[in-house]
Amino acid sequence: MSCQHSCQQHSGQHHSGQHRNDLGILARRRIEAEIIKPIYEILVRDFGKARAQEVIGEAVENAAIAAGKDFARREPAGADIQSFVALQYLWEKDDALEVKILSSDDRHFDYDVHRCRYAEMYHEMGLGEIGHLLSCARDSKFIVGYAPEVKLTRTQTIMSGAPRCDFRYAVDKKDTGGGKHE
Asked: Count of CB atoms within 10 A of residue 35's CB?
């Protein structure tokens, strides 16, 4: 089963479609990258590549946490791993990802990405060296803002040259709050 099919199916079950008409994440990332690229180039010129990447990384991670919190506030029944699964269509819009779901239940969401247009786009834009900061690093931070009881484990990414990205989301075993948070 493709994630696009299951996520669209899930999205109708978990919320009233308030995210349905949102701009896809790939389109958002392109717009952001067009703004960040000249800023990054100036930072590299004035402070060096390492410091430039630290600044961009910190800013993007903070923005990801804030975005997660914003999305969580818009979940009428509260944000949890199931409502997170229902949002995945946003990251897949515009054929951005080729995904194979391995398992999905009320405590886990495991999938592999076999094609990532985010990585392709950043390389095409000349931003391959910071693509991991602009997209990959967001994943673990977004979930912190969205559903802090859910943790992401990922050991490889296409952005870093691996053949696939292995996303493993799990509700923290220490969580006893039933998976919901306000």
From this structure: 9
